Amino acid sequence: MSEARVRPDRFEAFRDMIVSAVRGFPGRYPGLVDHEVLLGPPDSLLYVSRWRSERDLVAYAGEDWRDRPVVLPGEDEYLVAPLRVRHFTVASL
């Protein structure tokens, strides 16, 4: 999961850019099981992705996937702070 803190005056434009950018991810990254963009206007956007394996995640995000979020070109101009990345695993019930 990556969390973007967005300049409120740029929120809609950022949302459109992210949705457009990730729309094609399932075809480009076969290990991507599911993904979604969650909106928390006026200034928060989450990108949540679920991956088949750690190897598939590394193919998308690189070896530093635990600590470095994937940043799209031009993304910084919309943000009030750097992206925050967090990782979760599923608990067995």
Q: Mind summarizing the main beta sheet?
A: 4 strands, antiparallel
H/E element sequence = EHHEEHE
Our count of helices gives 3
CATH overall fold name: Alpha-Beta Plaits
Main sheet: strand order:
2-3-1-4
CATH architecture: 2-Layer Sandwich
The chain-level mean pLDDT equals 94
Number of domains: 1
Number of strands: 4
Helix content: 25-40%
Supply the helix-strand structural class: alpha+beta
- Round the Cα radius of gyration to an integer and report it: 13 Å
CATH class category name: Alpha Beta
- As an assembly, this protein is single chain
Percent of sequence in beta strands: 15-25%
Distance between the termini: 22 Å
Regions with pLDDT < 50 over 5+ consecutive residues?
none
Instruction: Categorize the overall geometry.
Output: globular
What does this structure look like?
- The chain has three helices and four strands, in the order βααββαβ.
- The chain is an alpha+beta fold.
- It has a single domain (2-85), classed as Alpha-Beta Plaits, CATH 3.30.70.
- It has a four-stranded antiparallel β-sheet with strand order 2-3-1-4.
- Strand 2 (32-40) and strand 3 form a beta hairpin.
- It is globular.
- The mean pLDDT is 94.
Short description:
The chain has 93 residues and is α+β, with helices and mostly antiparallel strands. It is built from 3 helices and 4 strands; from the N terminus they run βααββαβ. 26% of the residues lie in helices and 25% in strands.
